[in-house]
Amino acid sequence: MMKDKKNLIVITGGAGGIGTACAKIFKNQPLVLTDYSQDAVDKAVENLKKEGFDVSGIACDITDKKDVEKLTKFIADQGSFKALIHTAGVSGTVQDLKKVYTIDLVATELLVDAFYPLAEKDSVAILLSSMMAHAVPANKKYDDALANPQAPNSFDIVTEFVKDSDTMYNFAKRGVHLLTHKHADKWGAKGARIVSISPGVIETAMALKAAEEHPERMKLIKQATPLKRNGQPEDVADVIYFLASDAARFITSTDILVDGGVIHNIKKMYQ
Ligand SMILES: NC(=O)c1ccc[n+]([C@@H]2O[C@H](COP(=O)([O-])OP(=O)(O)OC[C@H]3O[C@@H](n4cnc5c(N)ncnc54)[C@H](O)[C@@H]3O)[C@@H](O)[C@H]2O)c1
Fold it and tell me: How far is it between the farthest Cα atoms of the chain?
């Protein structure tokens, strides 16, 4: 007898801070977790299974086209996807500019392209950007390159405007916003949506590492946050749950800030 095909919630970076919080919020829906290392995926899947989740997992380096193909084949074998929640990424603490660009932006478009054939009416791709993307002004000179990260000269063009890996992170995350606009018509023709979400400082391993490297900056950010606290992974997961739900059925090609209001104040400081 043929097994019922499932409508899956797929989470990249599923072993990470925001990825784990997202998994926990989709308790009654079938989940597929993926992350860079098989070990991390196995542990995350085992923990969720113990809590009664319907979850499977597969390792995937999102920068590797063949791995991404393996991931989409894994999904297609089980069913269709309801939501791709793309949280895998690295911060600007990774000093290699190309690595930041490739993981945070090029791989994001690899995933969007790979999941498009599986998208159906009411599927949604939710891409993790960052509030820091809002600190990068629109500029035709680099926006064309950011919107086309797989083009051979894209990285070189963007690098001309970037002074360090933190700035590269901000630019790559602006590129994520631009990808939602670029792909929205194509996805929309299927009745599918594509959005980004831009967190502020969220207390995960990623933010704690940044806090170690820039303690003064992190203190200033907290002081400048209207809500006077950092975010928790659940603050982001709740909004992702909404974006994946039918309540968000008319939301596509846009970004949602979940930053406690701080980026507005940060931008004011530099004006
Ligand atoms: N934590 C924050 O303060 C914050 C703020 C703004 C935006 N974000 C964004 O949210 C997302 C999740 O952040 P987080 O705090 O949960 O980080 P995290 O470091 O806890 O999780 C990120 C996950 O991505 C995985 N990953 C990295 N490179 C990969 C690759 N090549 N292939 C597959 N998986 C890979 C890591 O293994 C890790 O499990 C990231 O895109 C990040 O840029 C985080």
Answer: 65
Residue 16 and residue 43 in contact, taking contact as beta carbons nearer than 8 Å: no
CA–CA separation, 129 and 199 (whole Å): 7
Distance, CA 204 to ligand 1 centroid (Å)? 9
Q: Which two tokens stand for residue 150?
A: 């797989």
> Model pTM?
0.97
Q: Give the mutation target among 10, 18, 25 for probing the ligand 1 site: most ligand atoms within 8 A of CB.
A: 18
pLDDT value at 201 more than 50: yes
Which SS3 state, helix, strand or coil, does residue 40 take?
A: helix
Burial of 159 (0-12, 13-18, 19+ CB in 10 A): middle
**Which residue ranges make up each domain of the chain?**
7-202+232-260
- Name all residues whose Cβ lies below 6 A of ligand 1: 13, 15-19, 35-36, 60-63, 87-91, 103, 128, 130, 199, 201-202, 204-207
CA distance 74 to 140: 38
- Is the pLDDT score of 218 beyond 70? yes
Q: Give the number of other Cβ atoms within 10 Å of residue 104's Cβ.
A: 28
C-alpha 189 to ligand 1 mean position (Å): 30
Domain 7-202+232-260 top-level CATH class: alpha beta
- Residue to mutate (ligand 1; options 90, 214, 258; most atoms within 8 A of CB): 90
